[in-house]
Specification:
Number of strands: 6
Order of helices and strands: HHHHHHHHHHHHHHHEHEHEHHEEHEHHHH
Number of helices: 24
Strand content: 5-15%
């Protein structure tokens, strides 16, 4: 391995459900359902508190929802001692927490939490389903109204948060008719068909929890409803993390240890869709597997697969932008890469790619931010396929790059240009008005009879005479390149 990796150890920690207290909160609620001692409750609450303090920034609804749902469970079981502990802990948490100003005193938040409490209680008591339906209707109306009012925020009607949603008490109490009702009402709220909802609804955490607690009928319902979990990295990594999970989920879905093109996956017309890793998400899958389950599991899974030889730019982009979790920073070297909860993202990304990517790698460009990727692929022969770059890729991620950097990129990488037309990628390179850049583009096959005339017109119109001289040499064959 290159010396750059020897200074650092792989140190990504085990974080189920995307860096949140989801896992321990789910475990605690399940324990309450099966009776829990006061001693164990105190231990588990400390564990939840520890997780919440680490990851509370993006999960501020989890803790209050946890307390409300647990309270409903313990109230139904008439466990007064544990209820007293819950009440005391919740008061402590809300006394001095900053999120109290935004969460506890929000009428909508209080209404949603109250509805979750009452719904959970009525589900446990097996109350009339019509009453539960009215509670679900009210929750969706509040959530939908808030989502539409704050249109810039996540749409939490279709992004069903784990635990903080009626679907969670419906799942743990296994009321499958009301689950169908919830899904239908969710589709109506967003004016979606059943098929559209199945493609849109994000059920992060639910699949993992259902596998963990053997809720095969819940998984079966989701499968029949048409949900596609091949793009749910948390679910995929949990399924692939050990053979027991893999075997269990295979009872419901056709799960295969392979990476396939997205188009091939969606062309599968079998009654039960197969669940596998779309190649467009293989890097996201790799990082999620490593972060959640460690190198040993990652090695075991990827040893069953061929080395990665093709990467989709969107996949790469999600990988490197995920390193900062919303933090902005500017680093000049790996020594200055900041960490988040002890995680050195850039170092681990480079090390993982070095370990699992082939010596020759092709990146399929979409938006064209190709300037960012070579620094992560040390000692690799990189080819950028620009032929499918979309029409909105006006700047191709190169607008801030110097001429010297662009020349280095063209020299050290193979570029597959779209030669049927003059693309925005061509224009972005040519606007530097560098004869050296134009000469390298010609050597890389950027021009053909189909687009060279348009290129010359563009250069004349914008007075880019240095590039124009090089193209004229080629076009009029005044000189050999």
């Amino acid at each position: 391995m290159d010396n750059v990796f020897e200074k650092y150890n792989y140190n990504l920690e085990f974080n189920r459900y995307d860096d949140s207290p989801y896992y321990v909160a789910d475990e605690l609620i399940r324990d309450c359902l099966h009776d829990i001692s006061e001693e164990q409750l105190i231990i588990d609450l400390k564990k939840v508190k520890r997780q919440f303090d680490m990851y509370s920034t993006s999960n501020q609804d989890i803790l209050p929802a946890l307390y409300y749902i647990m309270s409903a469970v313990l109230y139904q079981k008439n466990n007064k001692q544990c209820l007293s502990i819950i009440s005391e802990r919740f008061n402590e948490e809300t006394d001095f927490k900053e999120w109290q100003l935004y969460q506890t005193y929000s009428i909508n938040t209080c209404s949603r939490l109250t509805l979750l409490f009452v719904l959970t209680l009525f589900l446990l008591r097996k109350t009339d389903d019509e009453l539960c339906k009215r509670l679900i209707d009210r929750w969706i109306a509040i959530q939908d109204g808030e989502s539409r009012e704050h249109y810039w925020s996540d749409d939490k009607v279709v992004h069903v948060e784990f635990i903080v949603s009626p679907l969670y008490p419906l799942m743990i109490t296994e009321n499958f008719e009301l689950i169908k009702y919830f899904l239908e009402k969710t589709a109506q709220a967003r004016e979606l068909t059943k098929a559209e909802l199945a493609k849109t609804l994000n059920l992060e955490g639910y699949v993992e929890s259902a596998v963990e607690y053997y809720q095969e009928e819940f998984l079966d319902l989701l499968c029949d409803y048409g949900f596609d979990f091949s793009n749910n990295m948390a679910a995929l990594t949990y399924i692939y993390s050990n053979q027991q999970n893999f075997d269990y989920i295979s009872r419901v879905w056709d799960v295969r240890k392979e990476i396939v093109p997205l188009a091939e996956f969606h062309d599968d017309n079998s009654a039960r869709k197969r669940i596998c890793i779309p190649w467009e998400n293989q890097l996201a899958f790799l990082m999620k597997m490593f972060r959640n389950y460690g190198m040993e599991v990652c090695d075991r899974v990827f040893n069953c697969l061929s080395p990665i030889v093709t990467i989709h730019e969107k996949d790469f982009s999600k990988l490197i932008y995920g390193r900062c979790i919303g933090d902005s920073f500017d680093c000049n070297s790996l020594d200055n890469v900041p960490s988040y909860n002890g995680i050195r993202y850039d170092v681990n990304i480079i090390a993982l790619l070095n370990r699992y990517v082939s010596e020759k790698i092709t990146i399929i460009a979409d938006s064209g931010r190709i300037d960012e990727y070579p620094s992560y692929l040390l000692n690799k022969k990189v080819t950028f396929d620009m032929r499918k770059c979309n029409g909105e890729s006006k700047y191709c991620g190169l607008q801030y790059c110097s001429v010297s950097y662009i020349k280095s990129l063209l020299r050290n990488s193979d570029i597959l240009f779209n030669t049927d037309e003059l693309t925005d990628f061509h224009r972005e390179l040519l606007k530097r008005n560098s004869a050296a850049v134009a000469k390298l583009m010609i050597k890389k096959g950027a021009f053909s009879d189909a687009n060279v005339g348009e290129a010359i017109s563009y250069l004349v119109e914008n007075k880019l005479y240095n590039c124009l001289a090089e193209l004229n040499k080629m076009y009029f064959k005044e000189d050999k390149v």
